[in-house]
Specification:
By secondary structure, the protein is α+β, with helices and mostly antiparallel strands. The chain is built from six helices and six strands. The strands form two sheets. Strands 1-2-5-6 form a four-stranded antiparallel β-sheet, with helices on both faces. The radius of gyration is 15 Å and the shape is globular.
Length: 129
């Protein structure tokens, strides 16, 4: 798994939650494809689409092309400079199995998703990463 930097590492028994910062767009796209509907809704709400687009230009979650639209907007948010993009990927590991749960273009959105997983603030703020 391509890793750039660990932003958060929280262990609870045999389960580990990590937030990884990566510049690997392919890895970010894989994580995006693994997101469930609630993760996609969380990402979409964090993008503040109404401030960027007219309501008629925002596809509905049931529309064809909705996920591609959200991906494209998130990639724009992930831009660090002209040709550099960084992504924050939330993973959960149990034993030797790791799954990507969420991806965003910024740390605060990834952090807020981790909170939705039930990780307490003190574990997030006082982590060893």
């Amino acid at each position: 798994m391509p890793r750039q930097e660990i932003f958060l590492l929280v262990k609870d028994g045999d389960e580990t939650i990590e937030v990884l910062k990566t510049y690997d767009q392919q890895f970010a796209k894989e994580a995006f494809r693994n997101m469930d509907d609630s993760a996609l809704a969380h990402l979409a709400s964090s993008l503040n689409l109404e401030a960027i687009y007219e309501p008629s230009g925002i596809p509905k979650p049931t529309d064809e092309g909705y996920e591609d639209f959200i991906w494209d907007v998130m990639v724009d948010e992930a831009r660090e400079d002209w040709n550099s993009f960084s992504y924050f990927i939330v993973t959960k590991s149990r034993g030797r199995e790791t799954e990507e749960l969420f991806v965003s273009g910024d740390w605060p959105t990834a952090q807020s998703y981790v909170k939705l997983l039930g990780i307490p603030d003190e574990a997030i703020n006082n982590n060893p990463a």
